[in-house]
Amino acid sequence: MTLEIHGTVAAGFEPVRDEFAAFVATERPDYEGQLCAYVHGRRVVDLWAGDGVDADSLYGVFSSTKGAAHLVAALLVQEGTLELDRKVTYYWPEFASEGKGALTLRDLLAHRAGVVGTDSGFSRQELADDRQIAERLADQRPFWRPGTAFGYHALVIGALSGEVVRRATGRTLQEVYEERVRAPYGLDFFLGLPGAHEARFRSTQAMAPTDEQRALLDSLPSGPHTLAAVAFNRHAAEPTDLETLPNDPLVRAKGPASVGGVASARGLAGMYAAAISEVGGKVPLLKDDTAAEFGQFHSVGYDLVARAHKSYGLGFQATADTWYPTLGVGAFGHSGAAGSQGFADPRSGVAYGYTRRRFAFPGGAAVENERFVAAVRMAAPTVG
Questions:
Q1: Is 35 within 8 Å of 47 (Cβ atoms)?
Q2: Side-chain half-sphere of 191: how many Cα atoms within 13 Å?
Q3: What is the pLDDT of residues 132-183, one digit of tens each?
Q4: Which residues pair with 47 in a beta bridge?
Q5: Torsion angle of alpha carbons 35, 38, 39, 42, nearest 10°?
Q6: Predicted pLDDT at 93
Q7: How crowded is the C-beta side of 290, counted as CA atoms within 13 Å?
């Protein structure tokens, strides 16, 4: 059975629809996904496929949440509320414990703090609450000397950034995001899903690897005391099952700023469009200099947690180097473990969002994004 493709594309973007349809035709019959893109603030791709899904369906977007969190940080830096080269302890004195006192906000946002988790791990209730995470991390001894190396702070970077935001503004990061970003643009990208929208949520489905893929996953090095285990809370008394994290109503309701966001592809792409382009008569949220600062390479090379080459800006992934070389230098965004992707490419004006329901193999940005992004980027010059 071939799933029907719904939605629209602007003139010149028909190849994106063709690429989406070609991919969907090879997927499982239960595939659900959404694809959306803007160019210079104009929505040019708005597609979805799957039984029961529509453009308004909402999905757990895991680490794509970090993009929303760090758009807030960028706005506060832009207006002078936060300063990147101040020590974190200027805002959050308790963070100085265990040798972390010299760390700057810039290094914290670039995954250089060294506190990817705690020695004993977090409970599910703690992982849903950024305040509890931050309180635990303030007392945690770093796993490497802060500022000397970097590693993906997978489940905690939003709590670290969020505590700085709370100390500087008196508001939670989620509250600032709601007031400054989500509500003004009517974005379907929530950090804390209101009960009124629960019926639109589509629970994340577990990965369904082939036998070969399962063998590859089983062959990967693992251990209860590795940095990866600490960063993904697999060493805790209640090890985190990442695949089901957004299916917990408490996680959805609290919207932890590292992994708890709920969004549609429209919401992802719309947020990044608003960041770099005029949307709805509003000026871009970010000035060119701010977008360039947050998209600039800050941590590039060997990621101690991922054990692989990675590239980060400030809170964002450096999307061109990490995932899509067809994008311009300075493209910034963030992928999510189940396969979601969102980014802005200021040089081309492209803003992109993709969601899917079933957790993708092997985790992180789903491989189909490579095809979709290339098709969007090729079509983008046709739009003035």
A1: yes
A2: 32
A3: 999 999 999 999 999 999 999 999 999 999 999 999 999 999 999 999 999 9
A4: 7, 35
A5: 140
A6: 98
A7: 19
Neighbours of 94 (CB within 10 A): 14
- CA atoms of 14 and 11, how far apart (whole Å): 7
pLDDT above 70 (res 383) = no
Conformation bin of residue 297: beta by default, left when phi > 0, alpha when psi is -120 to 50: beta
**What is the total residue count of the chain?**
384
The CA-atom distances, in angstroms, between 354 and each of 30, 127, 230 are 17, 25, 28
Mean pLDDT of the chain, nearest integer: 95
Around 171, how many Cα atoms within 13 Å sit in the side-chain half-sphere? 13
Alpha carbon distance 158, 168 (integer Å): 15
Pick from 298, 381, 357: nearest CA to 70: 298
Burial (0-12, 13-18, 19+ Cβ within 10 Å), 204: buried
Q: How far apart are CA 189 and CA 187, in angstroms?
A: 5
**What six digits make up the tokens of 347?**
């040089």
Span 284-308, mean pLDDT?
Answer: 97
Burial class (CB in 10 A: 0-12, 13-18, 19+), 265: buried
- The answer to whether the peptide bond before residue 362 is cis (omega within 30 degrees of 0) is yes
d(CA 255, CA 264): 15
Single-letter code of the amino acid located at 318: A
Centre a 10 Å sphere on the Cβ of residue 302 and count the other Cβ atoms it contains: 13
pTM, whole model, 2 decimals?
0.96
- 240: its two tokens: 């985190």
pLDDT for 42 beyond 80: yes
Element (H, E) at 325: none
Would you say 198 and 185 are in contact if contact means Cβ atoms under 8 Å apart?
no
Q: What is the dihedral of CA 331, 172, 158, 40, to 10 degrees?
A: -10
CA distance 75 to 164: 13
Contact criterion met (CB below 8 Å) for 121 and 127:
no
DSSP H/E element including 309: strand 308-312
